[in-house]
Write a structure and sequence with these properties.
The structure holds 2 protein chains of 2 kinds. Chain A is mainly beta. Chain A has one domain. In chain A, about 5% of the residues lie in helices and about 30% in strands. In chain A, the strands form 3 sheets. Chain A has a 5-stranded antiparallel beta sheet, with no helix packed on it. In chain B, helix 3 packs across helix 14. The two termini of chain B are about 25 Å apart. The chains are: A mainly beta, B alpha/beta. Chains A and B meet through strand 6, strand 7 and strand 8 of A and helix 4, helix 5 and strand 5 of B.
């Protein structure tokens, strides 16, 4: 047992950043690393390293997905992996001049929703090698893949079809 | 609805002025101010309240979990029953409906729904990042997650599908910012032109800074009651005539391309070649409207609604929403605003308050704010609360409030009706 009436907290030099005194506004820092599992979507990300774009197909009703999902939204049955074509068309597009903080240094960038021949749903991606004026709905485009993977969906991106 | 339960009335409301940042008060004090305004306006005290619903969207903005109970505590409502309801941008609309259900079910005679958000504790770009985390973090967020970008793609598709123009989008901004000149609670009232909108900095093509709502600090409160309590506590209550809620897939890429969900005033022949909803329309908005109209007995919305307060986080979504709500046919939304049909003195006043574009969008408060402004409109007390009657729609009898979450994932529609 220790009873010490003279106990004293050790002083530190780190202080705090103050933005305003009235009302008192201070800096509060926060950061975190997540242990993020791709779980049932894992195969999609692994396939990007083989330069393959995987969607899914419902085993029961045959609905095909341009972005994979483990179970079918139409009938609830399990899906199987389905190889998508490497070429498609622009369904919709935009150019982002601002964005979330994590992506600000990449602006401006183009986002597209891609439609694939014979596939029921779409795929969201980026397109490079074009200006906003060049983009149009129906534009034929082609998938390209990073050689050094980041293991996120930016490992695939699109360019205009030659 | 199979069972509507007891009739529910709104009997009072309060809103704080929405601002970019109000560091002098935290969310509890802001909510308290809106709550006290509502209590005082109806001459009520704490003991008149049976329970509550807390409406707020994100725990990230303040890094404070359980904000709901902190507000409940600060308002002096403990130990009464309460719960938090959350559904992205539609949090306010969903919470309001949860309050309606508390009273309709007979569990509570009176229920207060309080909504708040404090978005000023992070910078705008971090805020955009937090909001983008409300998209699929495996497939959508890492591409450059940015909600304005998602809506911009929906806008370019709407333009492709129906010939909607950027000038038509801009007209929504001109209308709503202009209406807000007479709303003292609005964050950004502005007299602007179509040219101003197009010349303002591009955020995500085709949406400019003036096509997009701002982040805000704010709170709003609505008090609901059953018939007996409503007429005991309030001499001019407003009936909640019907509620509807719809949902859609989180990922835009998953939206189907099928048949239009028809409203009573439409036929299949209207949409022979339209693949629906695709990404040009909000199926959840249409589903919500259909359920709400059914429960309120509305068959011709344009004729039967006097006011609509809808979720115009983007000018494009206001145009898309005219169509979802059946104020016009799919594809006619651009012309609807262009022809002045949504103006203050138009066919139906849409966002007479200024909407999210001009009032601001403190997420959890937004849907409740719409309820409060609609309540005052239907009570015909706008002059009393705004100190200006320019926005009062004369003889307003029936209105619709519409709350909407990211890319149309959750949408609510609630019909409110004057009883006097």
């Amino acid at each position: 047992m220790t009873i010490n009436p003279k106990a004293k907290l050790e002083e530190t030099q780190d202080g705090t950043v103050v933005y305003n005194f009235d009302p008192l506004i201070v800096k509060s820092h926060y950061e975190i690393d997540y242990v993020h599992s791709y779980a049932q979507d894992s195969e999609f990300f692994k396939a990007l390293g083989r330069k393959e774009l995987l969607g899914s197909k419902c085993k029961k009703c045959g609905y095909t997905y341009g972005t994979p999902r483990g179970h079918c939204m139409e009938c609830g049955a399990e899906t199987e992996w389905y190889k998508l074509p490497n070429e498609g068309k622009i369904h919709a597009f935009t150019t982002c001049y601002f964005g979330g903080e994590a992506f600000l240094n990449e602006t401006p960038f183009h986002l597209v929703l891609v439609e694939f021949e014979g596939v029921d749903s779409l795929f969201m991606s980026r397109i490079i090698g074009v200006d906003t004026e060049d983009l149009y709905v129906g534009m034929p485009i082609r998938a390209k893949f990073r050689r050094n993977l980041k293991l996120n969906p930016t490992d695939v991106y699109f360019v205009p079809k030659a | 609805m199979k069972n509507k339960g007891q009739d529910v009335y709104m009997i009072s409301g309060g809103v704080t002025k929405f601002t970019k940042a109000s560091p002098e008060a935290d969310f509890r004090l802001r909510t308290k101010k809106a709550f006290d305004y509502a209590l005082n306006d109806a001459g009520m005290t704490l003991k008149d309240i049976d329970g509550s619903v807390a409406s707020y969207f994100s725990d990230h903005f303040q890094r404070q979990l359980m904000s709901g109970i902190m507000a409940q505590d600060y308002l002096g409502l403990t130990p009464k029953p309460s719960k938090r309801v959350e559904g992205g941008g539609a949090t306010g609309g969903l919470s309001f409906q949860a309050g309606v259900e508390e009273v309709a079910s007979g569990r509570m005679n009176t229920c207060v729904v309080y909504g708040f958000e404090t978005m000023s504790h992070v910078n705008t770009w971090k805020g955009n990042e937090f909001i983008a985390l409300a998209s699929d973090t495996n497939f959508d967020y890492p591409i450059g997650g940015f909600y304005t970008g998602y809506y911009a793609m929906m806008a370019t598709r709407h333009m492709h599908e129906f010939g909607t123009t950027v000038e038509q989008l801009a007209k929504v901004s001109v209308k709503n910012h202009g209406n807000a000149l007479h709303n003292p609670y609005a964050q950004s009232p502005m007299k602007i032109t179509v040219e101003d909108v197009r010349k303002s900095p591009m955020v995500s093509y085709p949406l400019t800074r003036l096509d997009v709502c701002a982040m805000s600090d704010g709170a709003a409160v609505a008090i609901l009651a059953n018939e007996e309590k409503a007429f005991e506590l309030c001499d001019n209550p407003v009936l909640i005539k019907g509620i509807g809620t719809g949902t859609d897939t989180m990922r835009l890429s998953d939206r189907p391309h099928g048949k239009v969900i028809l409203l009573p005033n439409e036929t299949e022949a209207d949409y022979k070649n339209l693949k629906y909803p695709g990404i040009h329309s909000f199926r959840a908005g249409r589903s919500a409207a259909k359920e709400a109209y059914q429960s309120a007995g509305i068959t011709d919305p344009l004729e039967e609604l006097d006011i609509v307060e809808l979720h115009d986080a983007y000018t494009s979504s206001e145009i898309q929403t005219y169509e979802d709500l059946g104020l016009c046919k799919y594809g006619e939304g651009g012309h609807f605003v262009e022809e002045g049909k949504a103006d203050l003195k138009g066919k139906v006043a849409v966002n007479p308050s200024g909407g999210l574009l001009a009032c601001g969008h403190p997420v959890g408060a937004t849907g409740i704010m719409q309820a409060v402004f609609m309540f005052w409109q239907l009570q015909r007390t706008i002059k009393k609360h705004f100190k200006d009657d320019a926005l009062q729609i004369p003889n307003a009898k029936r209105g619709l409030i519409h709350s909407h979450a990211g890319t149309g994932t959750y949408v609510t529609a609630t019909i409110m009706e004057a009883v006097k």
